[in-house]
Amino acid sequence: MGESWFRREFLTPRRLIFNVGFYGLHLFFFAYGWYSQATNTRLSALNGLKWSVWTSRGAGLVLAFDGGLILLPMLRNVIRVIRPRLAWAFPADENIWFHRQVAYSMAFWAMVHTTAHYVNFFNVERTQVRPEIALDIHYTQAGGITGHFMLLIMVLMYTTAHHKVRAQCFEAFWYTHHLAFFFMIGLYSHATGCFVRDDAEPDYITSFPFYSTEHCLGYESWRFVIWPGIIYFGERVWREIRARRATRLSKVLVHPSGAMELRIIKPSFKYVAGQWLFIQVPDVSGFQWHPFTITSAPEDPYVSVHIRQVGDWTQGLGERVGAGPSVVQSLTQAAMKGKEKDENSQYGTRGDFVELDPSYSARPLPVVRIDGPYGAPAEDVFKVEVAVLIGAGIGVTPFASILKHIWYRQRKGTLGSLKRVEFFWVCRDAPSFGWFQSLLQEVEAAQADPNFLRINIYLTQKIGEDMLWNIAVNDAGAEYDPLTLLRTRTMFGRPDWNSIYSRMRQAVETGQYLPGTNAQLRTKVGTYFCGPSVLAKSIKEACVANSSAHVNFSFAKEHF
Amino acid sequence: MGNLIWHEYARFVSLTASAYTIWAAFWGVLYRKFFWDFVGGIVRNPGGIQPNPNVSVMITLIVKAPVIQIFAFVLGCAIVMVEYPAPFLKNTIFSRSLLVKTMMLLVQSVLAILFYQGTNGAIWSLVAMGCYIRAQMLGEKVEEAKQNRGRGGKA
After folding, report:
1. Integer distance in angstroms from the first to the last C-alpha of chain A?
2. Where are the domains of chain A?
3. Which residues in chain A have their CB less than 8 angstroms from residue B16's CB?
4. Topology, domain A377-558
5. Strand A354-355 relative to strand A490-492: parallel, antiparallel, unpaired?
6. Which of A51, A138, A155 is the best mutation test for B, with the most CBs of B within 10 A?
7. What residues of A are in contact with residue B152 (Cβ under 8 Å)?
8. pLDDT tens across B57-116, in order?
């Protein structure tokens, strides 16, 4: 990366505040844990172990803090509810990033805590401050057993969470991460062995929490950190209940490009444009929930998702609904043939989608369950005057819903402050997203005001000679673009964001862009991006560089 | 299980286990203790476990002189270099052969189980070994390392 680590972590105000707050709190808890152990006269026998016991107590308190934090960013429903109110205070869409920061910190402090305890128990055995040997504490007492188990679970969870493994086999990550349940049990019960005590033998009692706080002098941190765990568990139960509400897969459409469109009817499912959901098909896998972007608008009578058959789960789903790879392939070929036949018509079509008739196959359509919706920043498009929607590659999917939604709102005349929409689609090869093109065609054809929605398509792949000739011959003077069949021309190569934004700024400032706007008001231009982070960075830089007294460019990125 | 490439996954576990073993071996030099000394040993107050004279070889190699710990330390560093892989080991037999890695992990877990701090390192090494064995059973091959073709984001 171009910029230095120091610049990124310390010279960006938001990041600086986070770093100081996050790591400052960690150091504070460590210092407090150390201090309260070292100065506690009732624990003077333990304090004979010196620095190692102070370190382990300090690190233990930090780990309790992390154990409480780690689940907070995973409370998806809570985040969805509080996001609109607190979006200014913290980046609610960076929840996975925060989850990872806590995890890294947890790994570090676990190392400190474990190292210190290995020294502690060594010295307990040597000095016989308690009548037990080191391995007794490690492998026969609650603290040691849960500790070693948590370390093993951490190894499995961290290694399978590597982005490479997640990309190869999401299930390995998904199932292994549910070891978190046992991890959390281990965390909450880690102190039940009453290691921190003022007498030689632990003081157990028969009632909850089964040790006496008279003599067991731990921090009792589980009383605090158990709450996120309980809320998370409740949320999972709630998600399960919600997923079981009446849901019906009404239609499966196969698009010639190979994408399946599932139209699902679930009256209790309320969402806004740009959100995503989890889908489960018990016939394919009883446990797996897969995230997909919603491609229908809230006004539609159904919820639709577009699924391309790329992984083993999506292929399994294709087989199950009777649209396996072979079917899709023949469909695509048929569509191509159809295109050839239509050659002498005014312009070719990509072939229409095909609805799978459930009565045609022996098995009825499978049961599906959906869970969601979950948030995304593109809900905010109606608060800005100009919305710049940028989708890169497959990242274009959330904009299907947003564009449809804008179209519905346009018809109803409830666009809010939104005056213009610039839609950018950057992709390597447009034809692989045929279904999206047909949607764009509809939206484009429905535009009454030619200036409201502008579609810009950039094709970044290297063009072969055949394609070059194809474009040169077919493009000149044709009403529709030969590649996308849109009225908008396809542009080739990567977009130069800086010049795009500076031109937009000039146009806004001179009043050409938004006729009738008062130049004294600051125009808000919101950019909504979905795609790879390298591109996000360059767009964000262009946004920041071009913000002026009259035009405010804001930037939001979506995550999957 | 999906399309998990086992040897790529095993690499992460192996790196973790080796890093743990290196750190454990370092502390094992400072606080020397034979893990299995409770077998036949007696507990003295103060002084801890007095090991059985039958295991005096291990006491010599671990407590009197930290030979095992130093071996484990060096081997752990070697595994990290092979797995990472260090530039001079790229595309050599060490970083490409799953069998070599399995053997190194086996030795590491044997060494690590001997001293007090190494238990988890030994268990995790066994886990990594299991994944490598699974990779070999499935007939996975280590892909040719990519030449310097530049990284994403850089021209």
Report:
1. 22
2. 5-242, 248-338+347-374, 377-558
3. 155, 158-159
4. Rossmann fold (3.40.50)
5. unpaired
6. A155
7. 532, 534
8. 999 999 999 999 999 999 999 999 999 888 888 778 888 889 999 999 999 999 999 999
